[in-house]
Amino acid sequence: MATADRWTHLYKVLSKSGPFSDPDWVPGDETIKSLEESKILVIGAGGLGCEILKNLALSGFKDIHVIDMDTIDISNLNRQFLFRQSDIGKPKAEVAAAFVEKRVKGVKITPYVGKIQDKDEGYYMQFKIVVCGLDSIEARRWINSTLVGMVDMDNPESLKPLIDGGTEGFKGQARVILPSLTSCIECQLDMHAPRPAVPLCTIATIPRQPQHCIEWAHQIAWQDKRKDDAFDSDDMEHIGWVYNAALERSKEFNIPGVTFQMAQGVVKNIIPAIASTNAVIAAATTSEALKIATSCNPFLENYMMYAGEEGVYTYTFEAEKKSDCPVCGNLARKLTVNGDFTLEEFIEMLGERPEAQLKKPSLRTEEKTLYQRFPPQLEEQTRANLKLKLRDLLTSGQEVAVSDPAYTIDFRFQLVFA
Amino acid sequence: MLKIWSMKQQQQQAENAEGAAGKKKKKVTAAQLRVQRDLQELTLGNTMKMAFPDKDDILNFTLTIEPDEGMYKGGSFVFTFAVNQNFPHDPPKVKCTQKIYHPNIDLEGNVCLNILREDWKPVLNLNAVIVGMQFLFLEPNASDPLNKEAAEDLRQNRDMFKRNIRASMGGGSVRGVQFDKVLR
Amino acid sequence: MASDFPQTQVGPSSKERKYDRQLRLWAASGQQALEESRVLLVNSDGPWGDKSTGVSGVVGVETLKNLVLPGIGGFTIVDPAVVTEPDLGVNFFLEDESLGKSRAEETCRLLKELNPDVEGSFYSKTIAEILKEEPDFVSQYRLVLLSGPIKHSSLQSLCSAAKTPGVPVLYTRSVGFYSAFSLQLPAVFPIVETHPDPESTQDLRLLNPWPELAEAEASISNLDSLDDHHHGHVPYVLLLLHYLETWKKTHNGNLPLNYKEKTEFRDLVRSSARTNNPQGGEENYDEAVAAVLKSLNPFSLRSSTREIFELDECKNLTASSPEFWVIASAVSEFYEQHKVLPLPGSLPDMKAQSADYVSLQNIYKTKARKDIADVTKIIRRTESQLGRSVEIPEKDIEVFCKNASHIQVIRGRDIPQVDGDAQTQKRIRTELNNDESLIPIFIAFQVLDIVVTGIQEGKYPEGSLDDEAVWSSELDRILGALASDNSPPIDDDARDRILEAARELRRTEGGEIHNISSLTGGLVAQESLKVITRQYVPLDNTCIFNGIRSSSAMYNL
Questions:
Q1: Which of A19, A168, B87, C513 is at 20 to 30 A from A228, Cα to Cα?
Q2: How far away is chain B from the Cα of C227, in angstroms, using its nearest Cα?
Q3: Which residues in chain A touch residue B10, judged by CB atoms under 8 angstroms apart?
Q4: Is the pLDDT reported for residue A414 higher than 70?
């Protein structure tokens, strides 16, 4: 009774349909039960992650996992509200999980301190939904291609909705990706502006801005003077050294404006971050998670941009799936072959397949270059593989990626030995 | 989606148990795939050679440029290419392994080429980079130098600059700086 | 200049380290304003009938979280409610041990844990009781947050208590997948640091260079005879000035002003670049070509700035006029004299040798300082004419001059009501003709306010929160009021859209969903920060969020 009472408000939207919920949806106990059984993964326990964990726990999810490799830093405390001064230096995932578990009774949060790349498909397969609160494009691309790669057309359960959030100052975005069905992170890569860079020669010879002096100290002076120390942007002594070197250079060129804060910002590529923007974007992602997990209302299709400098501005649109996307444009096809075929025979077979007559393919697995037609040095190094049997080159079920100059898109095959 | 899930649930649990026991199977990464394609589309000519210390790692290799014309004719210049997993969002990192006398390459081997930094775009490919590198040896650019002294020489006295190149390529010193021998 | 180059390494203090990521947005001045402010949260106003404790107040608490973390000076929570089981399912700043205790006290305690720099206090009673004992209670706060729905009389009395001392009010409601909030600002709310896009603030004065800038242009009259290196490093600002002189010689002394002339001028610049080099062109010329259409525009005053100069507050200064108006009036006078605003003085980065760039930059900075000095002179004269005893600090004059082109003044309005003034009604009627508008959600919230008022005043039973007949009749009453005054009646489609929105609100019987309240708390905190720091541009005046479609809209009601 106490439980039902506690979730009074949430259970109302799960037990009663609204004007916009799917007419076929059956609200009630089954919906609630399925929500509680939905295992959900949160990637990142930082500014977005702390909010996401709180929101999911208060949205009725009972089995939450969280991955983060970072430890808590003093500069996190202005927004990562699950952490205190005394937590500095501890792993974010563990502290965040313990806090939310203690505050919201009945929720289980399993932390993993480490990289997302440590885990394999078997691990990601256990979740129904993945929610990302990351600051790295590389990590986003990795989880995206992993989830796209997991899609098995014969098994709808292998499709894991990916909900991604990101912020920068007063701006942010939230997006819903249904791997292989809708536009993916790789399709949308050009929406991430590349980090603006200054020509190296400007830094080396004609600095004009305080930032140029800092880049010089960081990239050229450090290499010159402290080659043997690995530069660590979290080491205050290192930042201090760069700051002083930059200051000296700025005096030499009469360029005002070098400050310690700026030095730190340039060297660490610091993005401004505040609690309120994180709250908005995190809640946008978890609201979608609740809608996807329960069907209580339609979910976002598929991108929301947000900007808060001038009033409150949002723009919702459907990002397009790219047919030539290197990740979701061509999903891996299962191909049953004789493991005793040589690579050469296999290549011949590819040339005869009706869907893509690959005449001049280069092929590889994640760990091996099977055959690379160009440049000549690599062709020579991989030529011997042509005579080897497939089963000596790879294991059954492994993925082979094929590029052919006749096609602008690459192919992936999952080779299963007959 | 909920409907699909509830239908497939039990079947899936069985498959999961099976899958978890299986070996970790890694996908070819987007960066690897792109490099595989880029390599295949290179046009190297006879002044350039590539080498792969580990043939299975196509993200790390060296490029040797041996100009057959221009002021650097007769030299053999070796560059390392390091492509990270965020390629092609990030440009490849290129460094000269030898200490050479060149206005756009400093003594640490850093290379000043716009498309390696400020003008990099994901639509550019490795061939564009290699063409740019080759160009640096045909037409060293004095106007935006990394090695200020070399640039100064090129601007002030082209003949002396040429002499300095010869001396440096032979392993001699220029203005008190000893260079690596890079003659073929 | 000495202060431009600190002599010793000054590492950040631990406070600067803690707040580093936000100081990069609103700087030390914004942080100081934040730390000097106290915020009042009125988080509920008594139960709705016997079973419901009324508003859960999640938006209010989540908003405070987002203000406590960045280091607001202090907060006070007014909330007569006692913590119940449903509170624990929706409010993160309560725990099992809080059951049966004062919700004001418990939320205050758990929010204070977030930041030891912040003071927190609470009152476990209604705001009406407090106002009865202490009528000017609200004046000690910089901002009031009010969690609705709340009965009409309480809303009215709190809003008017805040209006007299000019304290802004944010009135929020979050129910099911919808939320809405409105901001009541003082009648005149000026902002100097609006943080516009840096591109839009670029002001190079190329068409009317002041003498020192023209002199710099003269220094490259030998442009054609420069060696390639120097030719390729002339800053593009000087290149444009140079070719403008060339242009004038062949165009009767006229500047290229229309689009056709500008493209011809651009061709002139482009064709003057040297191409007999390895790169086949020159970067500084590329930059000059790219800047022609953007930078060769006569100075024009933005209409919003012109309107500010026309306001009574600007034209009729008194001894007690706020600082903003004294400076605005002086800048307006400066504009009358020079037909331009004070120069902001910043110069974008461009291809150039270090020393050439720095000296060009100094020409811009020196001019900016001179303009500030001129404005300051006007201000000092005004101050003595008006008999003002305290001088406006130079720092404030400088900040104003740098931002002069994008200053804004918001005309504050009351928290909008459907049965309120004619302007609100007119805007709502217009919006109802647009079938994409979120205004139906706003009206549905208005009906909810009325139903809650009815319950609290004993007119309606508690069950009315999900009683279709009650909602429908209250809606018709509102629509009737909207349609009066010779305007056409509201059409059925619009009525249906409002009823749909109302159905979504009725679905949770006034209850909050944590995600939507947390998101709304983020938006409300952001507006609070803008109001308190007087930086960036706050909402004017109503925002509606639709969590079903993940969309929002702003309306000036």
A1: B87
A2: 9
A3: none
A4: yes
C-beta of residue C446 within 8 angstroms of C-beta of residue C420: no
Which residues in chain C touch residue B142, judged by CB atoms under 8 angstroms apart? 229
Helices (H), C508-544: 514-533
Architecture of domain A200-268: Orthogonal Bundle (1.10)
Domain range enclosing B109: 30-172
Tens-place pLDDT, residues C11-57 = 788 999 999 999 999 999 999 999 999 999 999 998 888 777 789 99
- Taking the Cβ of residue A386 and every Cβ of chain B, the question of whether any pair is shorter than 8 Å is answered with no
Which residues on B lie below 8 Å from A23 (Cβ)? Answer: none
Q: Which fold has domain C12-187+513-555?
A: Rossmann fold (3.40.50)
Distance from the Cα of C278 to chain B's closest Cα (Å) equals: 6
A282–C contact, CB cutoff 8 A: yes
- Residues of B tagged active-site: 112
Which tokens in the block code for residue A322?
Answer: 């790219």
What are the chain C neighbours of B141 within 8 Å (beta carbons)? 278-279
Alpha-carbon distance of C372 to C394, in angstroms, equals: 9
Q: Which residues of A have a catalytic role annotated?
A: 201
A333-417: CATH superfamily: Ubiquitin-like 2 activating enzyme e1b. Chain:  B, domain 3 (3.10.290.20)
Q: What DSSP string describes C98-156?
A: GTTSBHHHHHHHHHHTT-TT-EEEEESS-HHHHHHH-TTGGGG-SEEEEESS--HHHHH
Cβ separation of C278 and B155 shorter than 8 Å?
Answer: no
Q: What is the pLDDT of residue B22?
A: 40
pLDDT tens for C496-539 read 999 999 999 999 999 999 999 999 999 999 999 999 999 999 99
Measure C194 CA to nearest chain A CA, in Å. Answer: 8
> Mind telling me how many Å the CA of B166 is from chain A's nearest CA?
24
Chain B residue numbers with beta carbons less than 8 Å from the beta carbon of C279 are 141, 143
**Chain C contact present for A297, CB below 8 A:** yes
Cα–Cα dist B53/B81, whole Å: 12
Say which CATH number the domain at B92 has.
Answer: 3.10.110.10
Q: Where are the alpha helices (DSSP H) in C136-210?
A: 152-163
Confidence of residue C8 (pLDDT cuts 50, 70, 90): low
Predicted model pTM: 0.92
pLDDT of C122 strictly over 60: yes
ipTM of the complex: 0.95
| Total domain count, chain B | 1
Q: Do C69 and A265 touch (CB under 8 A)?
A: no
Does residue C469 surpass a pLDDT of 80? Answer: yes
| Token pair 């043997």 in the structure block, residue | A228
**A204 close contact with C: CB closer than 8 A:** no
Query: Which positions in chain C have a beta carbon within 8 angstroms of at least one beta carbon in chain B?
Result: 227-229, 232-233, 277-279
Q: Which two tokens stand for residue B3?
A: 């409907």
Q: Locate CATH 1.10.10.520 in chain A.
A: 200-268
Given C9, C22, C508, which is nearest A12 (Cβ)?
C508
Cα A46 to Cα A82: distance, rounded to the nearest angstrom: 9
Instruction: Divide the 184 residues of chain B into consecutive groups of 10 and give the mean pLDDT of each group.
Output: 46 42 66 94 92 96 96 96 94 96 95 92 94 93 90 92 95 94 92
pLDDT band at A353, cuts 50/70/90? confident
